[in-house]
Amino acid sequence: MRPFDDLIAEALAADVDGWGFAWLEGRATEERPPWGYARLLAARVAAARAPLDLDTGGGEVLDEAPVIPSGALATEGWPANLGLARARLEPRGVRVLRHATGTRLPVADASRDLVTARHPVAPDFGEIARVLAPGGTYLAQHVGPWSAAELSERFLGPLPGNPVARDPGAEVLAAQAAGLEVVDLRAARLRQEYRDVGAIVWILRKCPWWVPGFDADVRRGRHDATLRALDAELRASVPFVAHASRHLMRLRKPA
């Protein structure tokens, strides 16, 4: 394994835009949910008349669909990802709209027969219900509660409270309050393994909400002791293990 400083410098210099994770190949792994979201998405999108993909990131997951109908829309709020999504999806006929979390979707009422999302930032079920046509479907894979909590707690200490905002039960209640019917709900807890300290630095830059302020702090040395302790463990061939939390939701707007 390369020296500690080299691994840190490499991870800090690496690109973290978009929602691709190829940089971690050979350095970290995460189990996949059993339901195969990309496959489910591709089948639904191919059969849709007017799909909408929310928080599309760099458009990576939607672009895996072999067939995308004309008139498809996607939204993204992070400027760096917005450019990537437009470059990837617009040649396939997908119009990518800028949309800030917590604001009204720039989409007409009852105009979409399918709304999809992979790891949406903060799903707004009222807005999803508004843009869905009667009989339309919402298909999404959400990040669940306590996802990668082991990694966050290694830097921050015990996490307080109960993350109701990402709890699937709470989301079901919010969806029902918006007038949507729950057709399917499945949850999975998935093992993550990190094999070098560079992988940990890179993922904390990619997902900055796991350890707020991490990128700046590591340059000032605030987390140096924790990183060096992790590095020593990883050099002893002991991977750092955390767990991702995911749930699949399929909702329907009554006809």
- Strand segment tally: 8
Going by helix content, strand content and strand pairing, the class is alpha/beta
The average pLDDT score comes to 93
The CATH first-level class comes to: Alpha Beta
What is the overall silhouette? globular
User: Can you count the helices?
Assistant: 10
The major beta sheet can be summarized as:
8 strands, mixed
Strand percentage lies at 15-25%
Ends apart, CA distance between termini: 59 Å
Which CATH-level-2 architecture? Answer: 3-Layer(aba) Sandwich
Tell me the helix content.
Answer: 25-40%
Q: Over all CA atoms, what is the radius of gyration?
A: 19 Å
Strand order of the largest sheet: 1-7-8-6-5-2-3-4
**What is the string of SSEs from the N terminus onward?**
HEHEHEHEEHEHHEHHHE
Give me the CATH fold name.
Answer: Rossmann fold
Number of domains: 1
CATH superfamily: Vaccinia Virus protein VP39
Poorly predicted spans = none
Domain Methyltransferase type: 52-139
GO molecular function, one term: S-adenosylmethionine-dependent methyltransferase activity
Protein name: Methyltransferase type 11 domain-containing protein
InterPro entries: 23S_rRNA_MeTrnsfrase_RlmA (IPR052939), Methyltransf_11 (IPR013216), SAM-dependent_MTases_sf (IPR029063)
Could you walk me through the main structural features you see in this protein, from its secondary elements to its overall organization?
The mean pLDDT is 93. 36% of the residues are buried. It is globular, with a radius of gyration of 19 Å. It is built from ten helices and eight strands. It has an eight-stranded mixed sheet, with helices on both faces. Helix content is 35%, strand content 24%. It is α/β, with parallel strands linked by helices. It has a single domain, classed as 3-Layer(aba) Sandwich (Rossmann fold).
